[in-house]
Design brief:
heterodimer, A: mainly alpha, about 85% helix, flat, B: alpha/beta, six-stranded mixed sheet, three-stranded antiparallel sheet, 8 helices
Chain lengths: ~260, ~250
């Protein structure tokens, strides 16, 4: 079959065309890092290779996986809570303009409180406990999700809602087949910016009041001026977050857009 | 099949911003006969769509009553072909039809409808990939699929090119001959109304009320023939001189 015989190299060629630029770009970054490390010749700027060695050592000893796991657990819980509450709140505000007028200033205020302030206040009021940490992250993310979903709800297509009403879709069918497909792009946008926001905040939360997790470890390395440790954990974390983005959020987004021309 | 009695004393929209209260319909009394194909003709903005929305149950805030005399228990079912097809872009053609179906309507019926409207090949296609004519046919299939007591159509063939519109009208009549329903068809195209309707109801400028009610009489099969539509026009103008301006006489 000549067609399938030629199809495979075509796919590979396409993959290569897409990938060579990012690969080259990363390679350049590593090269730059290596050269700077040579020039500096200081334990405060370790070379990529020594960072890699630390990374492997920390993975083998099980310390990095454990702390990474703890942080990802917190990330998952606070992300889920912020998304669910934010979607519900956003849709409700989008559908009830009179309540929206009342609560909009609250949202604006929340959006403008620095993350650090929420974290400190949560620890002061609720103590250095797990729920306080989760609450602090949720409060930081929630208004953002709510505002995005409120916009999505405001632009819901009235024509389609009328159609659903005329054909007696009922509440559940309307929600699932008419409303949700219109809100999904907004929810996904909120999820992607949310992930980027939350994983940065969560490290600060751990640094200030937890005795495990990536943030806690980074603090230890900081106290010992162990830059190789800091960089090794950073690399591991970036890799995990990018994988979540590429393996979970991007496919979801493609699925949500599949009907577009 | 269903007889529908419409008695709307007044339907108005509240004042908004600088625009004052808008009275869309006043004293409109109309009975739609069982299985009759009634065309509603009137200038744009005269409240035709408002009337259809009231009949579809989308607009409940009005002064008056609409009574359905149908033979089954429960609320009357309306099929509504909107001016725009109003298909869910994220559902396939078939899903769009099936979602509207009440319990107990068979898949075979959907297959038959899709076949008759030339949509069998397009079942799994998303609406954005369809031409306007095809989208309109899907909307018609959906309206027929629910086996409505009353079928409402709001200028369903507007902005189709003439051959596509002609084709769509013929498909519609074919479906309707097999599955007779009580139809209210809104249009501003007189030829279309003369070609399709048993009865033409003319509305005046807003607030909508009836200015003429004409029975067409001529057998549908005859209407395609040369000269027949012209004869019909002439007859209507002679009987209803106040419609002369509409017929360009």
């Amino acid at each position: 079959m000549p067609s399938s015989h030629e199809a495979v190299p075509d796919v590979l060629k396409a993959a290569f065309r897409r990938a060579w630029m990012p690969v080259l770009s990363l390679f350049l970054l590593l090269a730059l890092w290596q050269i700077t490390a040579w020039l500096a010749h200081s334990p405060l700027l370790p070379s990529p290779l020594s960072v890699f060695e630390v990374l492997i050592r920390e993975i083998r000893s099980g310390v990095l996986p454990r702390h990474l796991g703890v942080t990802l657990g917190r990330l998952a819980i606070s992300f889920a809570i912020a998304m669910v509450l934010g979607v519900v709140l956003g849709v409700w505000l989008g559908r009830h303009p009179q309540w929206d007028r009342l609560f909009d200033p609250w949202l604006t205020t929340l959006l403008n409180i620095p993350a650090l302030v929420t974290i400190i206040l949560c620890y002061v009021w609720f103590g250095l406990v797990e729920p306080a940490a989760i609450t602090a992250v949720v409060i930081n993310k929630l208004p953002n999700v709510a505002v995005t979903l409120r916009e999505g709800t405001r632009v819901l297509d009235r024509d389609l809602l009328e159609m659903a009403q005329c054909y007696r879709f009922g509440r559940w069918k309307t929600l699932r087949h008419v409303v949700w497909p219109q809100l999904a792009p907004f929810a996904l946008a909120a999820a992607r910016t949310g992930l980027a926001l939350i994983w940065k905040i969560i490290l600060v939360v751990e640094l200030l009041g937890r005795s495990d997790g990536m943030g806690f470890q980074l603090q230890l390395f900081f106290q010992m001026f162990d830059v190789a440790g800091i960089l090794a954990y950073t690399v591991a974390f970036i890799a995990v977050i990018q994988s979540i983005e590429a393996l979970l959020l991007q496919p979801l987004e493609r699925h949500a857009r599949r009907w577009r021309r | 099949m269903t007889r529908v009695e419409i008695d709307i004393r007044r339907k108005s929209y509240p004042a908004r911003g600088r625009a004052g209260e808008h009275v869309a319909i006043r004293d409109l009394r109309l009975a739609l006969g069982e299985g009759a194909f009634t065309c509603l003709i009137g200038p744009s903005g005269c409240g035709k769509t408002t009337l259809l929305n009231i009949l579809a149950g989308l607009e409940r805030d009005f002064d008056g009553a609409v009574t359905f005399h149908h033979r089954h228990a429960g609320e009357a079912v309306t099929g509504y072909v909107f001016q725009n097809p109003r298909l869910l872009p994220w559902r396939t053609v078939r899903e769009n039809i099936e979602l509207a179906l009440p319990e107990g309507i068979s898949a075979a019926m959907v297959d038959a409808l899709l076949g008759e409207l030339g949509l069998s090949q397009a079942q799994q296609v998303y609406p954005e990939r369809l031409s306007l004519g095809m989208s309109r046919r899907v909307a018609i299939a959906r309206a027929f699929a629910v086996e409505p007591d009353l079928l409402l159509m709001d200028e369903p063939f507007v902005s189709l090119d003439p051959p596509a519109a002609k084709n769509a009208r013929q498909l519609l009549l074919g479906l309707w001959a097999e599955r007779p329903h009580t139809v209210l068809f809104v249009t501003h195209d007189l030829d279309e109304a003369l070609f399709l309707g048993d009865r033409l109801v003319f509305l005046g400028p807003p607030p909508a009320s009836i200015i003429a009610d004409v029975a067409v009489g001529t057998v549908r099969a005859e209407r395609g023939k040369a000269g027949v539509l012209e004869q019909l026009r002439t007859r209507i103008v002679t009987e209803h001189p106040r419609l002369a301006h509409l017929f360009g006489a």
